[in-house]
Specification:
Length: 469
Amino acid sequence: MSYLKKDSILNYSKNTNTMIDLNDLYDRGMELHYIANTAYPLTPTSVREYAIKGSEEIHGFLEKEYDKVKELALYFHVPFCKSRCKFCEYVVVAPNEAEMKDEYLKAALKEIELYSRIVRDDTKIVGFDIGGGTPTELGAARIEKITNKLLNTFNITNDITWSIETTPYNAVHKFDELKDIRQLGFRRLSMGVQTVNQELLKKMEREGDTLLYRKAVDAIRKAGFNRFNVDLMYGFKEQSIEDFKSTVEYTVSLAPEYITLYEMRYKLTQIATDAFSVTRNKVNQQYRVAYEILTQNGYKGNYGKNTFSRIENDHGTSDYLTNRVIKATPYLGLGAGAQSLGLNYLAYNQGAATKSIIKYMNEVEKGIFPIQDIYQLPEEEMMAKALSVMFYFGFVDLKAFKQRFNKEFTDVFGKEIDYLKLWNLAEIDNNQFMVTRNGVAHLSGVIPMFYSDRSKNELMTMNIEKILK
Ligand SMILES: C[S@@+](CC[C@H](N)C(=O)[O-])C[C@H]1O[C@@H](n2cnc3c(N)ncnc32)[C@H](O)[C@@H]1O
Ligand code: SF4
């Protein structure tokens, strides 16, 4: 299937001694649109050649790595939910482990202690998120212990906005806890609505209806949160364009400060094979309709951005995510299954694959970093990871790229940029490399242009059926 054809622009791959035609790469990204998205690397084993093995080697590596980190974003993962939604891609434990919250807290405090020995005292914390799962499921008292430990350990200042997540159900039924969490200093709160379609919610085994959502918003406001975000999802097999439109309209009536649109990512979810029934065309139309409603109602964001904000000079995302996306700031993920990205490494904590907290707790108990996989990545892999994430906002800030990698974006990706400009998929304006409206509609063809040689080849040759399941 060819979406665009032109004279070939060939890209030499050092890895495989082959030439990749950018037309073919673009076509392949469009064909595999449910995998060529902002998530990088493409599979959990893609970068295994760069793995660091052995707890002592990992310790030594991290010590050196954190000595170089001047700015860091912090994330703590809560892998508990009342029940698991079928579409969810996150690390959420099975009900039998949901009773181990106190043990989990104990392990988390120890993990923070381990990092306190290697993160420099003068490393500035530029963002702090507690995510999940459903953080409110952990309870305010445990969240307070984690927060206090982090405050006593790291250089967290008041000028950043701490952010946390809840479900609508917990906002309503754990109101006192919500108030306590606000009192702890969390100013931003994010809640998933996803959809108002009752049949779809039922199929996804997720609780929710418009009455619950409304009550949740009342509770959130009463608790004192005035930086409130609602998550919505599109790209489901059973979700029409009209259907998503009514969800967006309803959400606008809730008047949150921010609204985030998530395109369904199918990889490794319980509904992975639904991906084959979702067309790019439908997903694009759903985004376009949502964009129009949001911008007509005072929510701002460039075309292609996922988070829309009605607050002036505020991207709408948490400081943690904004720094990650725009500046590729290193982030430390604490808790089971959390992901970390350093200046030269990518790591996943124990539990990322198994969605269990047992190994995480056992390893912390032994005094070793509870890391499932850690990869020391070469620069082109770090760039590919950073750029894939930048497309979450639909642009690359050229100054931020230079600051992070000490190289000009236009020098590193000259050929790819020419190709994208030629096809009106991207443009450079005002120190920003921007994906055009046409580029947003073809984003999965655009993103692979910035992959490493290795991942370009991987995308071209992968067996998609095997990977999705
Ligand atoms: C950690 S969850 C949200 C917090 C809370 N547990 C809830 O469900 O309301 C963060 C958001 O990720 C989105 N999400 C979950 N699974 C996804 C998937 N497979 N693809 C894309 N977005 C997803 C949902 O919009 C969800 O609200
Ligand atoms: S979407 Fe939220 S509530 Fe549902 S399983 Fe994922 S983290 Fe839990």
